[in-house]
Amino acid sequence: MNTQNEIVVLSGSTGYVGQLILKGLAERFKEVRCLTRSPQNLIDLPDNCRAMKVDLLVRDEIENAMAGASTAFYLVHSLGESDDFEKLEYESARLFAQAASKNNLQRIIYLGALARESTESSPHMRSRHRVGEILSKSGVTTIEFRASVIIGSGSMPFESIRALVERLPVMITPRWVRQPLQPIAASDLRAYLLRAVEIENPESRIVEVGGADVVSFMDVMRIYASKRGLKRIMINVPVISPSLSSHWLRIVTPAHYQVGRRIVDSSIHESVVDQAPQPDFDIPVLTTEQAIEQALNNEHDELKFIDRIEESNSMSLKVYRSQFGTRFIEQRIIKVNANKEQVAGILYRIGGRHGWYWGTWLWRLRGALDKLVGGIGYRKSTHSKSPKVGDTLDFWTVVRADSDRLTLEANMRLPGDAIFDLRVEASAEGRSGDTKIIHTVAFNPKGLLGYMYWFALLPIHSLVFNKMVSSMASKVEATVREP
Fold first, then answer.
1. Which residues make up the CATH 3.30.530.20 domain(s) of the chain?
2. What distance, in Å, lies between the first and last C-alpha atoms of the chain?
3. Which of these CATH numbers, 3.30.930.10, 3.30.530.20, 3.40.920.10, 2.40.110.10, describes 303-481?
4. pLDDT digits (tens, 9 = 90+) for 216-272
5. How confident is the model over 277-293, as pLDDT tens digits?
6. According to the 3-state scheme, what is the secondary structure of the chain?
């Protein structure tokens, strides 16, 4: 089906699955309308993508967003928002379906949950299936995909699993973690969703999708641990209920508690494909092991976890802390009274013979300690004027080198992976006094030792990086003031 002259509406555009297919939709449609309550979180959009602030509980906003469109993706749910999420989901789906019908859309594509029907359905699964029914009764052709756990960096079920494995050397595993499920790789789910827009004259249907093998939550944890080089002891017990497990999640992985609780509550269901393959969706898929390996490799290669910039209108140094999956992220932003070209020079005068703007002796001490434990130490830099990808810089390697950005990956011995990112950004209005220096560090701890390392050194890192960024700004402004 040729969609090059058509418009597609993407709800949930800032969510994990929405981001997964956004660029693919941009390649296939004339215009992609990205619906979100937080358009500021949509960065680096393709030219034919339009961010629209839309509340899916407001009828007029949804109807206006769908005007002239042919296809709409429904990729939203209230999984982590409140205990009243079922009511919110039903109302949102009803308004979405009515707007699609009123605007004569050709198809709705919806991602639901894969689970065997049961008289003891969990609220989460019951809601997912009910939303599919509401959309399919709109009169608009509806393709409802039902998927199990999505294996990909940023997928909340996957992040909940990996958080447990990373933090707990010994795990008490209740009966529900041995329930069968059929995880699907993020790349395979993306292929299924994009295939749905290509089918000529589709009929409403339910399409169950999964990976190449049936495993259990315990298998997923073991495979993940193996790929990360972690030794984990799992002790099977028959008595811990899903309810008790959800309270344990609150203690161990508080950042993932809301989502984790829904997952645990839904563990009474077998999440396995029970449907004959459909010719329109004959797509080769990965095994769980391949999917986990791909997720870890993509996360390392793409560096997307450091791309987001926090909003800051202050001239003084601001520090923001967040997490992306298991990664700890710190971002420092300071405004400089200079133009972008003047500020960008700091990217070529850092590390090596230039030092680190503040406390260079501490960096050298860190290199000496690394050498003592068999690491590379504070080695000689390989670049002379401007760094290039692959160059070495003390105990870092350059992984990205642009005119306004420098990204380094740590090579010293660490209980995890570290990234150092420095970039310069001019104000949208082009005012010279609004140029920002944005420094981001990210650390992905490996096991419990990695978490202990991060928190133990957090005060020292905070001091060094705060002083470093402030010194950068001061030196740039001093250079600009020179006659």
1. 303-481
2. 64
3. 3.30.530.20
4. 989 999 999 999 989 999 888 776 555 555 555 655 555 555 555 566 655 667 789
5. 889 999 999 999 999 99
6. CCCCCCEEEEECCCCHHHHHHHHHHHHHCCEEEEEECCHHHCCCCCCCEEEEECCCCCHHHHHHHHCCCCEEEECCCCCCCCCCHHHHHHHHHHHHHHHHHHCCCCEEEEEEECCCCCCCCCHHHHHHHHHHHHHHCCCCEEEEEEECCEECCCCHHHHHHHHHHHHCCEEEECHHHHCEECCEEHHHHHHHHHHCCCCCCCCCEEEEECCCCCEEHHHHHHHHHHHCCCCCEEEECCCCCHHHHHHHHHHHCHHHHHHHHHHHHHHHCCECCCCCCCHHHCCCCCCHHHHHHHHHHHHHHHCHHHCCCCCCCCCCCEEEEEEECCEEEEEEEEEECCCHHHHHHHHHCCCHHHCCCCCHHHHHHHHHHHHHCCCCCCCCCCCCCCCCCCCEECCEEEEEEECCEEEEEECCCCCEEEEEEEEEECCCCCCHHHEEEEEEEEEEECHHHHHHHHHHHHHHHHHHHHHHHHHHHHHHHHHHHCC
Residues of the chain with CATH 3.40.50.720: 7-301
Q: Does domain 7-301 have CATH number 2.40.30.100?
A: no
**Dihedral pair phi/psi, residue 127, rounded to 5°:** -65, -45
